[in-house]
């Protein structure tokens, strides 16, 4: 019980925050409130007109009055429809704007979250929040409050009119209100629980679909379709089962709830009918009274579903705020206009969250305008070391200095603009070759683009494409070959013209000819820049001024290639196969 209260307290806090953040819509809310007030009053006054029709017009054979009252009734409907139309338009305007603003804030947030966040949280979950949960913002900022408000008003109005029409009948009904309320609340809560369960099952389908699309090649190659299909069918089954269960329960619940109304109406018609026969009550009053009873209960039912809806929506908004409140990468810190490219690691240790030490006591000094090769077995921590240079993760121990300034006091956003990266899996947008290149230099002309493409050995290929620079590269660049992707990423770095260049196995997919081109690049275009590259090929390592060898997260050898080859056994072992292949 306590947690329930705490939860609802929390829900109100969350909703309050949402309203506060959307306070720019407050004048629209005021307009909506007035509209709601007027439409509710209009619709609630209809039984009174009907009462007059029966008592004054029909029972007294007054056709002139009947006509007037019917005209009044018609005008009420007309004005009501008009107001509702305008209200709906304003609601859409407010709701959709609020959603768009919230979306934009979330989008900015996901762009600013650190790499460590994405290591911990699966993409599906983030997408689910941004695409699924966001929709309640529309409902909450434009509808829910006014809907609830109008239902509560309707209830108050109905109660007031019942008391006004006949206080004896009102007192008898009043005794029964608490039980009716209890029944309504009980079933409401049950339906909420069951709906939530249904959503959990439904998200199972979502996950199964998403995973299957991403892993489609593996699934088809391995012939695992059967396995995936079975899992999918299982999720479908549980959803259907839960839906049927919910349907059965809803029938039962609505029977119980409408049973309430019928019970009340029976009592009211019984007692009220007796009053009418005794001339203690007019027929029109009795009919109006019972209409208000029905209105009261329908409002109560609707209001209780809104209450449940509000709880559910608050849970969704909480999920959105969770994402929005994640700490962003800091934009503060010293900005450097140009980097010399002096990189120093001093006793740096690092581990990924919840994992054991990945890098331990790393100390090295990379002088400006030199080329450094990082070598080591797979999983030894080479890529991790590169991501530390870019400040993707804070280090646990030790210090990193760029141009003599601690990395922690530099503005990371400004630092990264000065670093060019070709990673193991370079990223491209679902856009054309031109757009993907112009990302780093908006004003680059076609000649300039072809020039850099030529330098990495892609010029001829792009020229021969039917659409040339306007060729789409496919999602994540998947329509390109591995080598083309790396070359394109390289050309992007040339355009970017950074001060430090980081190459993570940039030649892994390239043939010997392309490798020659890259080497030429290192000597010409990238001359005078600080280059840090992870390399698996001896020919690339030979280009470096110094080599750092990593073994299980520690530096095991450091120096020029010739020096290491002459002194380090493990370094010799690293090249054993390649050297014997040449000799
Ligand atoms: N985002 C991550 N979260 C947790 N652990 C990670 C993450 N990335 C890498 N690791 C782990 O850290 C260790 C070092 O990985 P890293 O990618 O630096 O190796 P590498 O030397 O670049 O290997 P390779 O030559 O295969 O690219 C590995 O054991 C890996 O499992
Ligand atoms: Mg790596």
From TrEMBL:
Keywords: ATP-binding, Cell membrane, Membrane, Nucleotide-binding, Transmembrane, Transmembrane helix, Transport. The keyword Iron-sulfur does not apply. It is a multi-pass membrane protein. It is found in: Cell membrane. GO terms for molecular function: ABC-type oligopeptide transporter activity; ATP binding; ATP hydrolysis activity. InterPro entries: AAA+_ATPase (IPR003593), ABC1_TM_dom (IPR011527), ABC1_TM_sf (IPR036640), ABC_transporter-like_ATP-bd (IPR003439), ABC_transporter-like_CS (IPR017871), P-loop_NTPase (IPR027417), Type_1_exporter (IPR039421). Its main location: membrane. Residues 30-312 form the ABC transmembrane type-1 domain. GO terms for cellular component: plasma membrane. SMART domains: AAA (SM00382). The chain crosses the membrane at residues 26-50, 62-83, 144-163, 169-187, 246-267. Residues 343-577 form the ABC transporter domain. It holds the Pfam family ABC_membrane. This is ABC transporter ATP-binding protein/permease. It comes from Aneurinibacillus thermoaerophilus.
């Amino acid at each position: 019980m306590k947690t329930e209260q705490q939860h609802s307290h929390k829900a109100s806090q969350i909703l309050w925050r949402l309203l506060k953040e959307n306070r720019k819509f407050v004048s629209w809310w005021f307009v909506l409130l007035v509209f709601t007030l007027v439409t509710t009053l209009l619709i609630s006054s209809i039984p009174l007109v009907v009462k007059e029709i029966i008592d004054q017009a029909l029972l007294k054979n007054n056709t002139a009055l009947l006509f007037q009252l019917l005209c009044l009734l018609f005008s009420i409907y007309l004005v009501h429809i008009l107001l509702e139309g305008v209200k709906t338009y304003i609601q859409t305007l407010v709701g959709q704007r609020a959603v768009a603003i919230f979306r934009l804030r979330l989008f900015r947030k996901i762009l600013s979250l650190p790499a460590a966040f994405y290591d911990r949280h699966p993409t599906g979950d983030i997408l689910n929040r941004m695409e699924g949960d966001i929709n309640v913002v529309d409902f909450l900022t434009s509808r829910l409050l006014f809907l609830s408000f109008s239902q509560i008003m309707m209830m108050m109005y109905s109660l007031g009119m019942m008391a006004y029409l006949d206080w004896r009948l009102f007192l008898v009904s009043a005794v029964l209100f608490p039980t009716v309320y209890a029944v309504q609340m009980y079933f409401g809560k049950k339906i909420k629980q069951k709906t939530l369960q249904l959503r959990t099952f439904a998200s199972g389908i979502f996950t199964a679909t998403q995973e299957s699309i991403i892993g489609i090649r593996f699934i088809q190659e391995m012939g695992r379709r059967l396995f995936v299909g079975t899992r999918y069918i299982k999720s479908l089954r549980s959803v259907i089962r839960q839906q049927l269960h919910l349907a059965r329960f809803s029938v039962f619940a609505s029977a119980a709830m409408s049973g309430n109304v019928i019970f009340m109406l029976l009592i009211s018609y019984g007692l009220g009918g007796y009053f009418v026969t005794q001339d203690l009550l007019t027929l029109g009053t009795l009919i109006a009274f019972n209409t208000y009873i029905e209105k009261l209960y329908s409002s109560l039912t609707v209001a209780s579903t809104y209450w449940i809806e509000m709880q559910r929506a608050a849970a969704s908004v909480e999920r959105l705020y969770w994402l929005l409140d994640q700490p962003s990468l800091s934009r503060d810190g010293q900005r450097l206009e140009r980097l010399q490219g002096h990189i120093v690691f001093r006793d740096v240790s690092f581990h990924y969250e919840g994992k054991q030490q990945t890098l331990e006591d790393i100390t090295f000094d990379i002088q400006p305008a030199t080329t450094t090769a990082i070598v080591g077995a797979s999983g030894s921590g080479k890529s991790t070391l590169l991501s530390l240079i870019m400040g993707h993760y804070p280090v646990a121990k030790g210090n990193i200095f760029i141009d003599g300034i601690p990395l922690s006091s530099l503005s990371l956003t400004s630092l990264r603009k000065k670093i060019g990266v070709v990673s193991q899996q370079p990223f491209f947008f679902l856009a054309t070759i031109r757009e993907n290149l112009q990302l780093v230099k908006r004003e680059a002309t076609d000649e300039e683009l072809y020039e850099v493409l030529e330098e990495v050995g892609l010029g001829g290929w792009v020229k021969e494409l039917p659409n040339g620079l306007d060729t789409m590269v496919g999602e994540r660049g998947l329509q390109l070959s591995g080598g083309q992707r790396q070359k394109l990423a390289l050309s992007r770095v040339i355009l970017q013209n950074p001060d430090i260049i980081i190459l993570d196995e940039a030649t892994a997919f390239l043939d010997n000819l392309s490798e020659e081109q890259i080497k030429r690049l290192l000597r010409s275009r990238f001359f005078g820049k600080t280059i840090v590259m992870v390399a698996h090929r001896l020919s690339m390592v030979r280009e470096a001024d110094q080599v750092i060898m990593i073994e299980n997260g520690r530096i095991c050898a450091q120096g020029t290639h010739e020096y290491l080859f002459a002194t380090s056994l493990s370094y010799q072992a690293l090249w054993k196969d390649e050297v014997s292949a040449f000799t």
